[in-house]
Amino acid sequence: MLRNLLSRAGVRVLLAAASGVLAFGLPPARAERLESPLELLHAPGNLLVAGPLLEANVKGRLVFGRGEVLGGNGKPPPKIDVRAPQAAIQRVQVGRHYIFGYSTARPDPRNPTRTIADPAGAILLTSTGLDPALFDDTPAARAILKAGGSEHRRESRRFFDLLMKALAGPDPQLQNLAVGEIALEPEIGARLDDRARAAIAKVALDPAVAPGVRATLLSSAAARPRELGQWWSAAAVKILETTPVDGYAAKASDPTDLVLVAFEVTGAHAVDIPATVLRRWVRSASPALVERACLALRRQSPAAERSAIAQALADPALPARTRKFLDGHLHRLDRLDGRNGARKDSTNRS
Q1: Is 21 within 8 Å of 128 (Cβ atoms)?
Q2: Distance CA 152, CA 159 (A)
Q3: Model confidence over 78-102: pLDDT tens digits?
Q4: Is the separation of the CB atoms in 199 and 167 below 8 Å?
Q5: Contact at 8 Å (CB) between 164 and 178?
Q6: Residue 207 DSSP one-character state
Q7: E strand intervals along 192-297
Q8: Binning pLDDT at 50, 70 and 90, where does residue 337 land?
Q9: Which alpha helices (DSSP H) does 92-171 contain, by range?
Q10: Nearest-CA neighbor of 130 among 196, 44, 43?
């Protein structure tokens, strides 16, 4: 149940990516702003710094040497100690040079619209497009991060070209940054042509791309089809049709939220999904996905839902937690049908 609730919350965040920013560890007042990742990186109070990684602490901290300050006011200390998510700590290498964005602020408990110095110390910025704000120090990263340092430069053709190049490029962090800008920056949407929309669709459908990146593009296109293109509905069905029901091999590539977004946008816009596609998800190891598939089948016909559940339960290889969920789901359906039948009988007698 907890995983189900968390997954649904994650989907709501992804669906909001076209109109807002989630900033983990940032003050709520800032999280409510409609800031693109580059706006956030260069926002007052935040710092963007290049430097070597001196220490990676398994307890959730990274220590960098201060190199060039690429954005923000003030002079950071010679050694910059920041809190970081475990995924970031696991992918860095001591001695390598990185560019990182961080904040030292937290909400003022007496006034949530204000910020104060965080006694826990600095934290890497995290939002849509920043997962977190930690990039390999490469010419490509410097070009796009510097070009995004002002509103005037972000509106330039050069910046748009850098963004599209990053979208199709090999660097997953820059690709994620580009997706965040596309999702949250209206000026980018206004520049998109058919060629750019085709490039976006290609990334959204690429199984080699991080599921979170694909989910953001899919939810953004569903929310803004005139700008990002009408490809999203076919892409959502394709994702449901081709994504492995048991997930990808790499733990970091868990497709659950991507599939949930595909279910969410197709359901919200009444997109037809073949029953054969829905039935495969009834066997998923994720109860959240099983539930979405059952609901979609029920919209087609209650008989189709019950048939798919019976077929899944007859499979001895069905994951144990899926079997438990489906048993409970069947009981709920029986109770619902019983209540509906009793209500109908009462109506007929009256």
Answers
A1: yes
A2: 10
A3: 999 999 999 999 999 999 999 999 9
A4: yes
A5: yes
A6: T
A7: none
A8: confident
A9: 139-147, 151-154, 157-167
A10: 43
